[in-house]
Amino acid sequence: MDRSDSTIGSSSDEYHSIYPDEQLKAVPFVRILWIDNSGIHICRVIPKERLGFVKEHGIGLSPACLAALSSVSNAPAEDSGLTYTGMIRIIPDLSTRCRIPWEKKQEMCLADMVTKPGKPWEYCPREVFRKVSKILKDEFDLVVNAGFEIEFYLLKSVMRNGKEDWVPIDKTSYCSTSAFDVASSILEDINTHLQTMNISVEQLHAETGKGQFEIVLGYAEACTAIASLIYAREVIRSVARQHGLLATFVPKFAEDEDGSGSHVHISLSRNGDNVFIASDESKYEMSKIGEAFMAGVLNHLPAILAFTATHPLSYERMLPKTRNAAYLCWGKENTEAPLRTASPPGIADDLVSHFEIKAFDACANPYLALASITMAGIDGLRKDLSLPEPVEGDSDVSGEKLRSVPDSISESLIALAEDTLFTEVMSENLLTAIKAIRKMEVKNYCEPERDYSQPEMDVYKDPLQDIIFKF
Question: Locate the GS catalytic domain: which residues (predicted)?
């Protein structure tokens, strides 16, 4: 389906000075990529000779297709306030441009959303994150840094009773050498492609699910880290396809398998120095700046989930005893807690260098998700908040009377409605659209319709079969 209301302009020669004829011939296409409010990767492709014109004037699309669609519907979410009437422009950010390793004759770059050149659209996720980053810098002279873990399943196609099904490529256990052997050539190709894109990889291993793997990306300033996350997912999907497989990042691939997240590790820096590491007295081996920031995140976590855990499957992943954040608490090196402070190898005296958030997955728009986390941290800094005592061991059997995190999108939306913090950087219109999309995800996934193409059979559409191909 073509979701564009109009395409602006015609070809231009102005970029021939930047891209000589031989380079234009070598790389004929540029993919302009963005992430929508349901977490889907989307792109428009232009001939490279048009890049100059598009950089200046943009590509026109309707408001609804940029910010009002759920993961399984081409219709705008009801009550989103957005329609297919009107035009918003996507502008390529050439600072993110890179060659596509698996398509030798193509490049890609990320995009901003504007109402007209130079005027950001209030729904643009990248602009929201820029606003939050500016507040953090202006008020506290701090920069947020991030590193992502990417969990995914590798699936192969099999025929069962005349129907195609997708099953894991392996059935071995966590960190199994056999599992790594099965996927070794795929992981080698992924790592090679990421290296050519200057995306740092710290670790690769088999995860707990059958056919599930994890790639840990390097740490960087947040905007760079988000771009690396987006491009890494593109690499993983494409390499899997080249090997005849399907890579899916869906939060819960199967009821009897562990979920897949995009756990994010966060720290703060000032003038290039990590200010999370204790430089003053703290009983938690972290600085007061780090504690206040993290306390703000813990305080606002129920509402943050509306941005970081955005699909019904997200909540099927966050269960007790699955190391996926079921209770509102924090702990030092406690993988059962939704917020975990970390003292990785190389950090002296067991001091905390950063913290990890578990409730983050591939259905989230990473810019909006990290914006909500950062804004919550800013609130903690403004109020000089303190953390409660950390939880040790399994958080649900620790003897503490702990409040559960929201266990559904509906609960996270209630928390968001009660939490007015995010209106400082997110317009009411954007929040209205986000809430409408979340409600539509619930309707699409939790209320599947009868498949009337086969009226004689008791067959229902399985929304998960569509979702695993999109996430």
Answer: 125-471
Half-sphere exposure of 8 (CA within 13 A, CB side): 19
Would the pLDDT of 396 be above 60?
no
Looking at the DSSP assignment, which residues form a beta bridge with residue 155?
A: 168, 246
DSSP code, position 386 = -
Set out the domains of the chain in order of their start, with CATH numbers. Answer: 25-121 (3.10.20.70), 130-426 (3.30.590.10)
Structural element, H or E, at residue 413: helix 409-418
Kindly give the pairing relationship between strand 264-270 and strand 339-342.
unpaired
**In this model, does residue 91 exceed pLDDT 80?**
yes
**Integer Cα distance of 398 and 317 in angstroms:** 21
**Which 3 state secondary structure label does DSSP give 113?**
strand
The candidate with the shortest Cα–Cα distance to 276, out of 206, 183, 337, 344, is: 344
Rg of the chain over CA atoms, in angstroms?
22
User: Could you give the CA distance from residue 36 to residue 123 in angstroms, rounded to a whole number?
Assistant: 10
Residue pair 405/302 in contact by the 8 Å Cβ criterion: yes
Q: In angstroms, rounded to a whole number, what is the distance separating the alpha carbons of residues 437 and 72?
A: 11
C-beta neighbour count of 316 within 10 angstroms = 15
Per-residue pLDDT, averaged over 373-383, amounts to 97
Contact between 433 and 67 under an 8 Å Cβ cutoff? The reply is yes
The whole-angstrom separation of Cα 36 and Cα 43 is 10
**CA nearest to 205, candidates 195, 216, 194:** 216
Cβ atoms of residues 341 and 284 within 8 Å:
yes
> Amino acid letter at 147?
G
Tokens (6 digits) for 86: 């009107």
CB distance 279 to 287 below 8 Å:
yes
For the cut 90, the answer to whether the pLDDT of residue 257 exceeds it is no
Q: What is the largest CA-CA distance in the chain?
A: 72
Q: What is the mean pLDDT of residues 267-293?
A: 87
Residue 313 DSSP label: H
Q: Are 286 and 351 in contact (CB under 8 A)?
A: yes
- State how far the Cα of 326 lies from the Cα of 334, in Å rounded to an integer: 13
CA distance 359 to 355: 13
Pairing mode, if any, of strands 330-332 and 339-342? parallel
SS3 98: strand
- Is residue 417 within a helix (H) or strand (E), and if so which, with residue range? helix 409-418
**Three-state secondary structure call for residue 158:** strand
For residue 274, give the nearest of 207, 332, 355 by alpha carbon: 355
Q: How far apart are CA 121 and CA 118, in angstroms?
A: 10
Residues whose CB falls within 8 Å of the CB of residue 383, separated by 6 or more in sequence, listed in order: 292, 296
User: What stretches of 90-149 show up as alpha helix (H) in DSSP?
Assistant: 125-140
| Spatial separation of the C-alpha atoms in residues 302 and 8, rounded to whole Å | 42
